[in-house]
Sequence to fold (494 residues):
Amino acid sequence: MDDLNLHSPADAMNDHAPDTTTPMVTENKPAVPNAFAQMGLAAELLAAVRDLNFTEPTNVQLKAIPLALQDNADKPANDLLVSSQTGSGKTAAFLLPVLHTILIERQALEKEEAKEWALKVEQAKANGEELPKKPRRKNPTDTRHVKPAFPSALVLCPTRELAQQVAKDAIDLVKHCKGLRVACVVGGMPYPLQIARLHNADLVVATPGRLLDLQRSKQLHLSKVQFLVVDEADRMLDLGFAEDLADIHKLTESRRQTMMFSATIAPRIQQLAARIMRTPQRLQIESTQAQKSNIKQILFWADNQQHKRKLLDHWLRDTTIDQAIVFASTQIECDALAEDLQQVGFSAVALHGALSQGLRNRRLQALRDGRVQILVATDVAARGIDVPSISHVFNFGLPMKQEDYVHRIGRTGRAGRDGLAVTFAEFRDRRKIMDIEHYIQANFNAEVIPGLEPTQRPARAPSHEPRRGKPGGGKSFAGAKRGNGFKPRSAARS
Fold:
């Protein structure tokens, strides 16, 4: 589940700070109280978490969930503006409280309806009338029974892959919640299928474009949305969804809670929050400096594109590679590189926003099934990819934004494993490398491959000495872990 990232005792020893880990439990010691149960979450949600063998919340979950659950007659629900790096557990931080509130309210409504039905039956008996019969359940996939959806909660994601991953996480969490439905709405998928799945949906996970399409065609109504979550708000603005967010804000103005999650709380994010939220509580959980260290990051300088291609080829022939992602800067470079790799015998496919959604889904599934060893992708595709067997990430083309570098490398080192992120850079890219080093607050370890050494030298190459107060130099952190939601386990335009 992508970014639920609930800690397990085994994973805690390697990846997490001492104040958030769970001590090992032996037969002679009492079990540590379940921190999720202490938050007051519904028993059905706790059962789903238990099924996945997770007990300890991450920092962002520990701080955000109790605040998100504060909702009573005397004090309205808290609007939250949360800054937390990928891999910190953001998905569960908003899914659990939203699902909890929907579930509790549904159960209260069902109890009230049960009382009314019992009273109706008693009255029929007292009057000697025929006992009433409950209507038969209609098949929601039958087009004759499809009605416009009125969801209670809405989660907005910037990319299709991320939306699909968040929806999958939500479905895993409602495993024991009878009658609670989750629907995913993304572009590139058949309208009839999505419309059918929207029927009676309580929680809708969507990309803004397709959501508004369905709303304008009256297949979906947002007037009853009580909870609005904007996931990866920074990326949402990068992809030009500001106007769509404004439209959705107007359509859901009667909602009682808004939560926004972003890697950083930059001025533009604060401006967005000011427009769509009411006095939000700000939470800044983990800075880039606080990331884990199970991903080793190294750098290889190259003379030109051909030199980079030889370096990549050398690395991809490493027999220790299980699966890998090679990141390209553009869609054209992505397709060309994937084709080159196929021609020299690698099992490789391309993934970028110009492909149809069906094809993207099939290629991602092939990667998850192990039928593809190398995925060549653009930056957008980095959001929502959760394949624990990815052991290596290669930055063949450098990212446009420094934060995208963190999202890229977070595709490896998942499920408590170690990962390796390899960056290839030409000397003309040294300023971009320095910007990335400044962003992650760590220096790359520059290495060479015997026989493939660069013949040039940068006029003023970045220093690779560790920064003051940052021991370890080339070892960096597993920034951008966005797992399947739970760390120990193993959506988009571009």
Summary: The first strand starts at residue 80 and ends at 83. Confidence is low (pLDDT under 50) at residues 8-33, 459-494.
